[in-house]
Amino acid sequence: MNVAITLFPGTNCDTDTQYAFEKLGHKATILWHKERTIPANTDLVVIAGGFSYGDYLRSGAIARFSPIVEGVIAHANKGGKVLGICNGFQILTEARLLPGALKRNEHLHFISKHQHVRVENNQNDFLRLLKVGDVLNLPIAHADGNYYADAQTIAQMEQKGQVLLRYSDASGAISNPNGSVGAIAGICNETKNVFGLMPHPERAIEILLGSDDGIKMLQGFASL
Amino acid sequence: MQQPLPNLPEILAKHKLSPLEYDSIKIILGRDANLVEIGIFSAMWSEHCSYKSSKKYLSGFPTKAPWVIQGPGENAGVIDIGGGMAAVFKMESHNHPSFIEPYQGAATGVGGIMRDVFTMGARPVASLNALRFGDVKRDDAIGAHQRYLVRGVVEGIGGYGNCMGVPTIGGETSFDSCYNGNILVNAFTLGLAKADEIFYGRAEGIGNPVIYVGAKTGRDGLGGAVMSSDSFTDASKSLRPTVQVGDPFTEKLLLEACLELFKTDYVVGIQDMGAAGLTSSSFEMAGRSGSGMKMHLDQVPAREEGMQPYEFMLSESQERMLICAKKGSEEAILKIFQKWDLDAAIIGEVTNTGHMELFWHGQKVADVPVQPVSEEAPILDRPTQEPAYIAKVRTTSIDSFPAVDNQTAFEKLASSLEVVDKGWIYTQYDSMVQTNTIKGGGSLDASVIRVKETGGALAMSADCNVRYCYIDPFKGAAAAVMESGRNVAMTGATPKAITDCLNFGNPQNPEVMWQFAQSTYGIKEACAKLNTPVTGGNVSLYNETNGVSIFPTPAIAMVGVNPDATKTLKSSFQKAGNTLYLVGKTGDDFGGSLYMKELFDTVAGTLPAIDYEAELALWNMVIEANAKGLLASAKDVSAGGVAIVLAKMAAVSGLGVEATMKVAKPREIFAESFHRAIIEVEPKNAAAFEAMAAKLGCEKIGTVGGDTLRLNDISMSLAQLKKVYYTTFASVINRDL
């Protein structure tokens, strides 16, 4: 599959994401933020993690005005697949491609560690290779990962199968590292082509580094 | 002809220049100096930039080995790590600024050391930090202030490093009342470059342009180098404006732009603007090449209106670089920086005059010969004297105190802030970005990253037992070299070279100068015997407040290479049923021990003799046995002795241990004899391992497994041990919140 990875000023997971997709056998290219369109043959756009524009305002609030986001929105509106990881998730909520918002962690600190997440829904391209209830071990590294949406929105998302991942412990019991409502770690849009999560699946593709639980997530986007 | 400035004595005092030094300045210039020139001399001859008190002792460091590409004298040291790749690394202090303004002080310390590394052409791939704080446990205002400093420093390090996308993978934190008035923040960064694509801080080739890139210059950090070259008093809080403000986002852009520039062949030399800003970068670049330089200060991008030449030369605004480029490449270079939305301006050119000539709207405002300023700063031979306390600590020993039963002692030591997990700190650092981290914070001993380009691994560890350095600065410094090397070797990597950060008190105090001299002798001896040269470092003096100096704190960071990343050895128990060995000889060694400190609030005693051959033999045995696949885990034995090492290994792994070690006196389970390690081996490999380790003194002490830690007459349930290990630190640091 052809993966296009966005590079904003301050993005710092672009090469990690490229490395991961290439290691899994895909073609991954970097897209500069001043571009306005997504290459036509793109199967998946990844908004990689980092600190776009330093996150000096609200995380993702400036990046969403970048020319490339116009392209991402057009790609998504045509049904193209988009995955936002960490800062990418924040940018997608700021761009209103995903519902809700990501607030400062409840304990106010940046948090970096391996964190378990539980699969809530696999009826989508992202998690189709996993089973509901599977527990994955993924790195998290964020200051603004506290997912919030109002109760009505959450209820709609639950009903439409948009809540994809919740933070848990190794046994699958809920364990919330940042205060997210419902311990939500990852979601998708109503049409299930735009995905966002705070954990870093691209950092979990090698046992040498502690986990390869991210492989089945990234490979889900590859055509059957 | 320049006339003496009217209020010269006052100006000199403000710039911390002595009348004697002004006499030298007059000889160098052949006339009196103007204010800009006085500012330049003041900065370049400050302790911070000139190493005038320390140079005499730094000159004899072993700096050469076949794998050393660049030793001291450049922005960072460089070693060959095989596969055509080089590791570029250095450690630097940001002590004074961090005490005055912890968040920005620590953040800009990280930013500065990263620039030192990427200015050499390397992408920073890992950071460590070594932090010393005072009495964080105290109930009074001092304790509260120390906790505030811990919170600010940690947040500052994370704030900068995380945004840069450079993983902070480990470090060391310790606490002692001697740091109440002067905390220490030592930041280490390691970068990777191709071994034949290293860039240096040089300005040569007459007519080549001098280009300023990065952030605009403001008035922040004015006189920072001079500030860092003095002791603190109660009035020092007013120094806050001398602390720079960091902008990691701009630095991230600067990093990417510089790395893009390095792929071209336009660069002659490049240097970051750190302490003393434009002054030190321009003088050092010209000085190394024996060149002269013209700079037009009105061309420097300014953040504020009305700035004067003096301010441009002495500002310590962050995220700036000075480049000497090939003539004709100017447009192409400016374009790269424009792409990254950064300022870039041609501000001067290289000349053959040997002088630094500074202009302001066409008018010359300073004319200073480069060499005498950059390379011939005064070298002082300050008096030294063995401190009065040394005789006293020598006559104090563990036998001066009442006996304590081992269980009581263990419970006390296991909850020491020096021992317990620092997750509250390291989880605030992104330790996994760049997807190379094999051993990060909390995994004990050295930190390890994989090198994608070679399939190998780099291990690194920053260490210094300050209690050892206090009672015996020579052996204490040597012990720091040994411990950092041992930590690296315990991962299966071969220790290659060190960088150091020498933090001491006021050099005008002969007793401090003696500590400094002894420490450098210890580093020299250890680095020579262990074949781990010094590739660079940093000296931080004047860590003194109201006449009280810190303990001598020569922090050492060792870097080692493992040719096979998949053979990285862990430092905590791997499997129940595995056999544990203690390698090395245990004696009744309690000088400077954690035991004496925690139980009797005393730092005293003497250190045992050092046996470098035993140290090297231990390293080599572990490296060889690991390469053969015989080992499950290995951990060095240091503060708190075997008892505390087993406790840490158990807590981190979640596995218990049943062990018995032979001791002449029961307390020796806490002894801190050198040259020892705990090694975990699968039973099937036991015979092969024992054959290799026998000649080092190897005792089978027990087995991994169960839900309890037991060693001789001490025991603790794993649940209790983990609770103490993982919750103590946060409960202390967060108590005010």
Helix content of chain B: 25-40%
Number of strands of chain B: 28
- The CATH superfamily of chain A is identified as Class I glutamine amidotransferase (GATase) domain
Residues in helix, % of chain A: 10-25%
What is the CATH class designation of chain A? Alpha Beta
What would you report as the Rg of chain A, rounded to the nearest angstrom?
16 Å
- The parts of chain B where pLDDT drops under 50 for at least 5 residues are none
Number of helices of chain A: 5
Give the overall shape of chain B.
globular
- Specify the CATH architecture of chain A: 3-Layer(aba) Sandwich
If you compute it from the alpha carbons, what radius of gyration of chain B comes out, rounded to the nearest whole angstrom? Answer: 26 Å
- In total, the number of strands of chain A is 11
Pair of chains with the largest interface and how many residues each contributes: A-B, 30 and 32 residues
Strand content of chain A: 25-35%
Structure description:
- The complex is a heterodimer of chains A (about 220) and B (about 725).
- With about 220 residues, chain A is an alpha/beta fold.
- Chain A has helices at about 15-25, 65-75, 85-95, 150-160, 215-220; strands spanning about 1-5, 25-30, 45, 80-85, 100-105, 110-120, 135-140, 145-150, 165-170, 185-190, 195.
- Chain A has one domain: 3-Layer(aba) Sandwich (Rossmann fold), CATH 3.40.50.
- In chain A, the strands form two sheets. A nine-stranded mixed beta sheet of chain A has the order 2-1-3-4-11-10-9-6-7, sandwiched between helices. A two-stranded antiparallel sheet of chain A has the order 5-8.
- Chain A is globular.
- The model of chain A has no long low-confidence stretch (mean pLDDT about 95).
- Chain B is an alpha+beta fold.
- Chain B has a seven-stranded mixed beta sheet. A seven-stranded mixed beta sheet of chain B has the order 23-25-22-26-24-27-28.
- In chain B, strand 17, helix 20 and strand 18 (about 535-540) form a beta-alpha-beta unit.
- The longest helix of chain B has 24 residues, at about 140-165.
